[in-house]
Amino acid sequence: MKYRFSDLADISKLQELMGSLYWLTDIAIGIIEADGTFLFCAGWRGLCTAGTQKTCDCHAYISTHLDPVSYTCRQCPTGMMHYACPIVVEGEHLASVYIGGFFTEPPDEVSVSLDASNRGLDPAEYRKALGKFSVIPPMRLTLLLKYLKDQANMLADIGLQRLQQMEALNSLRLNEERLHYLSCHDPLTDLQNRISFEEGMTAMDNDSTLPVALMIMDLDGLKHVNDSLGHPAGDSLLRAAAKILMKSAPPESTVSRIGGDEFAILLPNASRNTITAIQRRIFAEIEQYNAASNHPALGLSIGFAVADAAPFAMRELFKEADADMYRNKGLRSQQKRGSNEPFR
To answer: Phi-psi bin for 87: left (phi > 0), alpha (psi -120 to 50), beta?
Structure first.
């Protein structure tokens, strides 16, 4: 679990609700995160830290000694009581409910005088201030501690419901993101798919930035590999080609798998010189792959088209690049296998 209690509850509403309880009972109440941070505490009057010698450490003690299973209890030198009960959500201690600032019997005069002396306070004024705190008899304390536990359990239920809602929403968001990804990507190569490619062409039709280039690639011999070695071998070749294209294409380009053995690269602001440089990188990567691989040799036939003046239409540019690819494919079939030099 990666959440804090403050992520799962409306702290401002809890503060308002618990503040009302303080005004009715005169007992301080609040919420402490599991790391000891007080989110709020209605009714904390600060006497435990008053004076020049702040020897009473009940606030710090409660914060650093929270029990993830049972009550945390602290009794000040004057006899003032402080309790905290854990809020546990799915087995994890996220926070604690605090109540305190009351006595279970009237303050002992000797203890009050000694504490006042230790902290540099006027004993009479200190006794007067402590006299404003409630004295809770044993029977009422039992009921108060039961309320504290019930409150912690109720807040744990609220936290659990909110946690389940948040996890359900997060799962839904992740599923939506996954579905969106799958809708525009090819599952085999992780390249963008034909739908995304078509959308990219439409966007470039509406973009006046020139020059605009389009490269079309066809994987040589895929059918032969599938027929002779099986589709897993063909899939491996397709993935290898996709990695080479992604590595060779500039960051601003869009690489897509648009058919069984066809790939395309959309390139904004790309000149013919840029295309030639990309082709050289592709063929160099293919040469390295074939030299280092025991798999079937990889070969790509590449065609391209560039629009460097308006008006232009991406559909026409696609036809031009596709025709150029098939011309080059025909030339490749007449040459010895293994020569991967660009045809430009």
So the answer is: beta
Q: Which residues of 79-107 are buried (b: 16+ CB within 10 A; e: fewer)?
A: bbbbbbbbbbbeeebbbbbbbbbbbeeeb
**pLDDT below 70 — which residues of the chain?**
1, 45-56, 208, 293, 335-344
Closest CA to 233 of 329, 297, 302: 297
Query: Pairing relation of β-strands 262-268 and 92-102?
Result: unpaired
- Cβ neighbours of 193 (radius 10 Å): 19
Which ranges in 185-309 belong to alpha helices (H)?
194-205, 222-229, 231-248, 272-292
Whole-number Å distance between alpha carbons of 41 and 23: 12
pLDDT computed for residue 342 by the predictor: 41
Q: Is the distance from CB of 204 to CB of 212 less than 8 angstroms?
A: yes
Per-residue model confidence (pLDDT) at position 177? 85
Nearest by Cα to 134 from 159, 162, 108, 105: 105
Kindly report, residue by residue over 228-249, the tens digit of the pLDDT. 999 999 999 999 999 999 999 9
For residue 73, the tally of other CB atoms under 10 A from its CB is 15
> d(Cα 126, Cα 174) in Å, to the nearest integer?
59
Which H/E stretch holds residue 83?
strand 81-89
Say which DSSP state 297 is in: P
Domains parsed from the chain with CATH numbers: 5-169 (3.30.450), 194-334 (3.30.70.270)
- What angle is formed at CA 325 by the lines to CA 319 and CA 328, rounded to 5 degrees? 145
Distance separating alpha carbons of residues 215 and 320, to the nearest angstrom:
10
Task: List the strands of the sheet with 262-268, edge to edge.
Answer: 254-257, 262-268, 212-219, 300-307
What's the rounded Cα separation, in Å, for the pair 210 and 25? 76
pTM of the model: 0.60
